[in-house]
Amino acid sequence: MKELSLNILDILENSVHAGATRIHLTLQEYLETKDFLGFRIEDNGIGMDQAMVDSLFDPFTTTSTTKTVGLGLPLLKQEAEMCHGGCELESQPGVGTKVSFWFQHTHIDRPPLGDIVSTVLMMYAIHSDIEFIFTHEVDNNSFEISTSELKEVFQDVPINNPKILQGLETFLLENKNQLYGGKHYG
């Protein structure tokens, strides 16, 4: 995929298909000190046994019933490693899965982050019944927003209401701009 945000969305959807009722996406960027861009997705889905975990980075392994290859994770792992990064995947049946990818932020071959705001909005819009937490960290600053916080604020109005989503988009963009100090990074 051309943008990391699309890879992230794909992994988030995998968590949904694994029956997760709680998903936490953490995006970490260390621009000034570590030259690091990484993301971690943790869920409480059905999890996987070690044999499945060991085979996930094989392109001919997929849990899909409609395709015979799964190129997403193997290609993303290859991209991360080419950009002086890597990945980790931990899973336990009945407990959930945690997957992490990281890259050298300034590496010339690192895919752009892309539209992470739209990725997050998509999760809130389509899967409003799932507890979804988004944390974005840039150097020493961060913000976090969760489905439970939104439901508490908006009470009887569904969080996938178009007006709520429009306000959420503004909130996410404003917080992203504050984290970057008005500078553009991708």
Strand order of the largest sheet: 3-4-2-1-5-6
Are there runs of 5+ residues with pLDDT below 50, and where?
A: none
Could you give a short account of the major beta sheet? 6 strands, mixed
Number of strands: 6
| Overall pLDDT | 90
Total number of helices: 6
Q: What fraction of the residues are assigned to beta strands by DSSP?
A: 25-35%
- At the third CATH level, what is the topology name? Heat Shock Protein 90
CATH class: Alpha Beta
Q: In terms of structural class, how would the helical and strand content be classed?
A: alpha+beta
Question: What helical percentage do the residues reach?
Answer: 25-40%
In the CATH classification, which architecture applies? 2-Layer Sandwich
Write up this protein.
This protein has one domain: Histidine kinase-like ATPase, C-terminal domain (Heat Shock Protein 90, 2-Layer Sandwich), CATH 3.30.565. Strands 3-4-2-1-5-6 form a 6-stranded mixed beta sheet. It starts with a helix and ends in a 6-residue tail after the last helix. It is of the alpha+beta class and 186 residues long. It has helices at 4-17, 50-55, 72-82, 116-126, 147-154, 162-180, and strands spanning 22-30, 36-43, 86-92, 96-104, 131-138, 141-146. The relative contact order is 0.18.
Quick synopsis:
The protein has helices at residues 4-17, 50-55, 72-82, 116-126, 147-154, 162-180, and strands spanning 22-30, 36-43, 86-92, 96-104, 131-138, 141-146. The chain is α+β, with helices and mostly antiparallel strands and 186 residues long.
